[in-house]
Amino acid sequence: MKAIQITGTDGFDSLKLNDIPTPEPGHGEVLIRVRATCLNFRDYMNVVGIRGITGPIPRVPCSDGAGEIAALGEGVANWRIGERVVVPFMPQWLDGEMLPSHQGAALGAHVDGMMREYAVVPASCLVHVPDYLTLEEASTLPCAAVTAWHALMVRGQLKAGETLLLLGTGGVSVFALQLAKIAGARVLAITSSEEKAAQLKALGAEQVHNYRQDPAWDDWVLSQTDGVGVDKVVEVGGPDTLNKSLRSVRFGGHVALIGVLTGTSGEIQTVQILRKNIRLDGVYVGSRAMFMDLLKCMSAHEMRPVIDSTFTLSEAVDAFKRIESGQHVGKIVVKC
Predict the structure, then answer these.
(1) Which residue of 113, 150, 193, 241 is 20 to 30 Å from 211, comparing CA positions?
(2) Res 323 pLDDT > 80
(3) Could you tell me the pLDDT band of residue 260, with boundaries at 50, 70 and 90?
(4) Residue 74 lies inside a defined structural domain of this protein
(5) Does residue 87 lie within any of the structural domains?
(6) 3-class SS at 222?
(7) Calpha distance 200→162 (Å, rounded)
């Protein structure tokens, strides 16, 4: 079978389209004919080796993937060949609290990911793809959409009438915008261009601020909320943006920390968290049960993912360059 592999430590030059053996499902496993995979910033970090993100070599990148069941292993009785399925980010995390073993089995890090024609996964982890979604759309969901759901609906308990701040136009932020509008929340967003601002407004954001033109976006947020601050923030930047997010949120508000776009460590004004009674939650994707709840919500409203661009396996380097550019709005898909 064809697969993209990270074969070294030379960034994009290490990405190779190789022929590797097609795996066979064991007891309790299924073989998936992967039709589409989707890029996350984590996948880009794995390829270029930045910020301490490493893993075994050679390795198939990308956590997200959807396709059809091609073969059933022994003991699998509740799935059929040909069914359309999507694979969760952490196949071992079915429900409850996340454990180190769940994180260790996350796809695309220390184990092979989904940027290949076939993959074997535990049957217990599979999620049925709703009929209204394409497999390309389904492939965008395991990381970014589940993260947005976990941040807003599980940890944040977002309610109608609350105000949410979003940073940028990446997958998590765009999914959070879509889910927030379903929930009846007001959305403020920041972005780097007027073109992206127009796209965010078309998706339902009430007000959008261009931080390239005016870096004091925390002042802008306070001006939009009569000095009170927003109820919730989905914080994707990390150390270079977290202090402004803390200033932007109201007393007693909630900040979901889910991204490391600006690094993995930095100087944080912890006094703001204390004095404002802010609840700061680290959110790392979510369980299969959260994924199922997300899909129930999406199906009820026929919510469709926003796909920025689509590539083929032979164009994988171009797909990674697209996410590196930061110009995307929504998700970048690679057909397998």
Answers:
(1) 150
(2) yes
(3) confident
(4) yes
(5) yes
(6) helix
(7) 18
